[in-house]
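Now for a chain:

_____
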Amino acid sequence: MVNITGPMVKDLRDKTGAGIMDCKTALAESNGNMEDAMDWLRKKGITKAAKKAGRAAAEGLVGVATGGHVAALVEVNAETDFVARNDEFKDFVKTAAKLALEEEGDLDKLLSRSMGEASVQQTLTELVAKIGENMSVRRTIMLAVNPGVVAAYVHNPSSPELGKIGVLVALKSTADKDKLNTLGRQIAMHVAAASPLALSPAHLDPAVVAKEREIQTEIARQSGRPENVIEKMLEGRMRKFYEESVLVSQVFLGPGSDGKLTVEKVVEAAAKEMGAPISIEGFVRFQVGEGIEKTESDFADEVAKMSGTKS
């Protein structure tokens, strides 16, 4: 039997909003596995969604570099937000993003690429030694489309090329590039806010769909209704899941939105206005630290340890 600790219960409560006793029971039923406990709570109807925002704890910056029909993102992590505001760190991320574009979003090639008199990795190592805080180039990606544009958007920017969230949207079309870029940026802003899981239902991870179907089936069965009714309920629940999770099916959050038009309909209207077909070929969203666990510690305890007053 796994020992269910207070921090484990607090972590689950922070992620789900469920009560303390419910969280403790969920962890006990799941043998201490956090993901299984979150699913257990959802199946019981105690929480509506597995909230994982608390896992995005690492600091740093996302850098973006654009080149018309191509663009790249790079995420560079640091331990504290103080370092993320350091000018040398910012310059490093900006340069890394430009090099990532040249290396077509290949992380290994980026790290070995020359940056001044040393490689990107060596330059970062020297920066770590100078600033005294651990840093890493975590990931990079490039999108390309031709004909068309790859539009970029940086949320909460510390400069036009740097921020906590970076988004790229590739639009394939022969329409006017300036108009396409405006549309692409509006969709990128939507992606930053709505955080879709995939471009279309066909692009969703089958494992994610299967897991959601399992959870929604369990919730529907708690109604006690016949299986044929449950199947109808499940169809509606999965349709709602797609509407919330898939970019083209999401209600557009950009300028001029009436709260009804989907992203797909917005693109169709823009294509008609510009006089040329437009298709979203892909998108990518980087948020600093997403999916990275950060160990929490008691500040007073850390001070005591540093001062030598606590062993």
Remarks:
- Residues 227-245 form the longest helix (19 residues).
- The first strand starts at residue 59 and ends at 66.
- The CA atoms of residues 118 and 149 lie 33 Å apart.
- The radius of gyration is 23 Å.
